Amino acid sequence: MTERPRPGSARPGGRTARTRAAVLAAALDELDEVGFAALTLDRLAARSGVHVSTIRRRWRSVEGVVVDLMAQHSATIPTPDSGEFRQDLYELAEAIAGFHALPRSRNLVEAMVAAAAYDPHIAELVRGAFMARTDVVTQIVHRAVERSEVPPDTDAYEVIAALSAPFYYRLLILRRDIDERLVRTSAEAAYRAACGGVFGGGE
Amino acid sequence: MTERPRPGSARPGGRTARTRAAVLAAALDELDEVGFAALTLDRLAARSGVHVSTIRRRWRSVEGVVVDLMAQHSATIPTPDSGEFRQDLYELAEAIAGFHALPRSRNLVEAMVAAAAYDPHIAELVRGAFMARTDVVTQIVHRAVERSEVPPDTDAYEVIAALSAPFYYRLLILRRDIDERLVRTSAEAAYRAACGGVFGGGE
């Protein structure tokens, strides 16, 4: 992601943004119709009307496009701001559960994790996409610190990781569906640990 | 795993056990030398001296062998029994961290998760291997219930999943190394949630 301009960054609302929108829309349609395993840059080019060399220059690979699609999607999810830390964590857990309730999203995450196992560049893209999303939602923790709900030295990234991890463990390792109980236990466990100073202070 | 006899179950210590030992040892050597992506049943047959049709009948696929290898490995990890719930959870977290500290183990898990994304049979094998291991270590929670350290209606599987999840999130999603701080925060967060009744009672 550091080796090329960020997709859509050159001329917001202009041709760059339109190109990105067309390619990501084509990727979404292709994922629904043929799935990730059958996705190719040529198919994306044919469907989007964007030349394949343009797609390759901007995203490098099918996986690059799909990670960008994930990033675009997660940017549309609002960050909870209820005025109360516990409620914010529950809402965030609900949002994660809601995302993974869509088979399309679940397949996407699984495909990305699988592709990352074989390609360090994709691994970096996956990491970047998750970190970008985490950056945004750490606001929940920063606001909780301001309200003195959690210790000031709380590591916000660790709180978000603690809340998120059980969902990915359920999907990728236990391979079962996410349910409401997981939403509650994940949010509650992260809440209590954070309030209790478990994520404080470094060592 | 339900469609065939469990590997090694027919004649413990006999030819069945020797065959299993030879194939799993060959798999371990191959993984170290050529890696998972290059592993084939023919290579396993050549290296182990076991006929390829025997391997195919018993394990069905390379992934079947590798999952059995993981199961064999995890069966050798002792279940902590310090007499204290918190200490047991810390020791379990240390054992998980120790397992993933070996690049070979990390690659194995990653390869299994990747393979599961494309093959429901492998997904079932992965799930079965993790559940078998979890079955064993839930003893930690059962003993804590007997000592009245946690509420009697605590869901032992949820406690173990809560402790384990952050390690897989770190490796597969954030794609960073596991460190001592993760051992501590994972064990402590699971401990406090379990003692506080977060995993109690169903809904």
UniProtKB/TrEMBL annotation, chains A, B:
GO molecular function: DNA-binding transcription factor activity; transcription cis-regulatory region binding
SUPFAM superfamilies named among the record's database cross-references: Homeodomain-like, Tetracyclin repressor-like, C-terminal domain
Residue spans binding DNA: 40-59
InterPro entries named in the record: Homeodomain-like_sf, HTH-type_TetR-like_transc_reg, HTH_TetR, Tet_transcr_reg_TetR-rel_C_sf, TetR_C
Domain of life where this protein originates: Bacteria
Signal recorded as keyword: no
Alphabetized UniProt keyword annotations: DNA-binding, Transcription, Transcription regulation
Gene3D superfamilies: Homeodomain-like, Tetracycline Repressor, domain 2
Residue ranges annotated for the HTH tetR-type domain, each copy included: 17-77
PANTHER family: HTH-TYPE TRANSCRIPTIONAL REGULATOR RUTR, TETR-FAMILY TRANSCRIPTIONAL REGULATOR
Protein name in the entry: TetR/AcrR family transcriptional regulator
Organism: Streptomyces antnestii
Source species taxonomy: Bacteria, Bacillati, Actinomycetota, Actinomycetes, Kitasatosporales
